[in-house]
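Intended use. Records such as the Transglutaminase-like domain-containing protein entry shown here are meant for training and evaluating sequence-to-structure methods. They are not intended to support clinical decisions.
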Amino acid sequence: MKKGYCRLLILTGVILALSGCGRENETKSKSAALEQAAVLKEKYSDSDKYIFQEEPIYINMNESITFPTKISKSADFEKNNQDDHTAEPFTVYEDCDLTRPLFRPDTISKKSSGYNFIISPSPQNIATESVSFSKGYNKKKETFTLLGDDSWGIYDTLYLVQNNDLNTGRLLEKPYIYLVKIDHSSVKMAAPKVKMSITDDGQLNLEWARVKRAEYYLVIQEQLSLKEENGYLEGPRFACLEIAKSEKAHISGYRLGASMEYSSDNKNDPAYKTDLELRDEVDAGVGDYHIFVVAVNKYKNLSVPGNSISSDAIGNKVPIGLAWNTFSNKYASIVSDGVKKIEDLPDRVPMIMADGSVSEYTVTYSIDESNTDLIYYQVDNTVFDKDWYYNLLPEIDDTYYSPKRKILQVSYNEDAVQGMESIKEQVIRTAGEVVNGNMDELEKVKAINRYLVETSDFDDDAFAKAEEYRKLRELDSSEESKKLSHDEWREMEDKRDTLKEELRERKQSFNMIGVLLHQKGTSDSYAEAFAALGTQAGLMCVCVTGETASGEAHTWNYVKINGEWRVADVAGNEMEGSGNTEKYLNLALNDPLYADAYSPDNQFLRK
């Protein structure tokens, strides 16, 4: 009996101790929240715009915030501006400066006496914000919800602004600000504290201490420069830069460039133009972003973020890609004058940096002696190497490299040069015929789509050969190739070389020449032709590469219509047939018809 009684006392003591620790942690948490509230009260003490409410609101991860009201529907609240589409009684922000709104709830529910205004991250209030990535040989996609689906996600602190009186519906003279604290204790994972450094080869290096119960970590980039146009409120944009199995991550500039935004001119040297496929053109200039790490447990629960790394800290230290237009122009001018030696190629190349500026880096070239069409480059002090320009210019007819004499000879075809002039003339002439100055942006998009669909056919044969060639290249670099016998491997190599030659003969089907001059091409040709005609017509267009839901390579366009990026897939419309030639036109980037059927490459995931 004594032993049993002692065990009971010990167990009771442990339970009391644990519950005491829980209460102690809760007390510390609320004490910290009150301290934060005191700082915010001081911040807004002299404000002539807001009144800060001293008592924080405490909720759990899946709990709603409820305010009693006498107003039965959102439409009865007074609008901030008569031109607004709806009233905005509440707005949820993720920052205390109230510059990054998350959503504006409008849910009202009836109760026994009166009504409740419900503030929750439910599907009816906010579109789910998530990140996803593919992993493994079968490219299985994992998706993690950062906010939405009735969960406050990774947020432990939010800021709620009340604009209207809940009894009368009238606008408040000064809106109220509430500090909202969200309890994440059920996840039982600490927030990773991240340290940053820049490696010698220009990569962003992140390290953090091990988080107990974490299976792996997500490195997240969030775009902060969000705009509000025509009353439409954008939420935060997230991209998963890396899934880390250990407590460190190396992020190359390629990955960082996924959700960057750039102004049309480089601030350091206006002579440089950045490439359309690597940036968005926005009036505000470089978009702000920050990077943080969240831990993931075996149940796929996420921790809250710790500290974050701002774009200002990365600045012009990390190159994110070659400034292709500038480099191509330099290379084109040298080729047109006649390149006789590899030493004549430019020894420095312009690189787009993480802050949108352009800096020059030393570059080293080499030639593949077995295939002189390939000119390899390595940009010193960066990870940009082992890449190449394959027939960089359509005008190039042939190349020869002598390893012994170190001489590169390039010959180009005068007919091809004239052909490039012809395509320029064709773009100018066609754009002038298809669109006119009285059309708005959407009308121009529809007119160009209609012209390309009606005048050109999809080159199924060239596309099938390209897909077969792509799959053979993937097989050659995969583990599966090691299982092939010598004869099977030789057969694969011979087939790949044969396809490569056939594709070289059909290369016009993979650029705008195919559709504009020969009325036949693949999705690459349609997308390039749309971008060329659209740009000539004054539209902002980019070509987007990626895959369809069936895993086939595909190219389409993003085009800005009324200030918003929209999807245009002219090749897809052509293949739909005459009955539905605008099916993939003017789609929002979150439209299920687009989101479920297309997977853009990493550099376009920001869209």
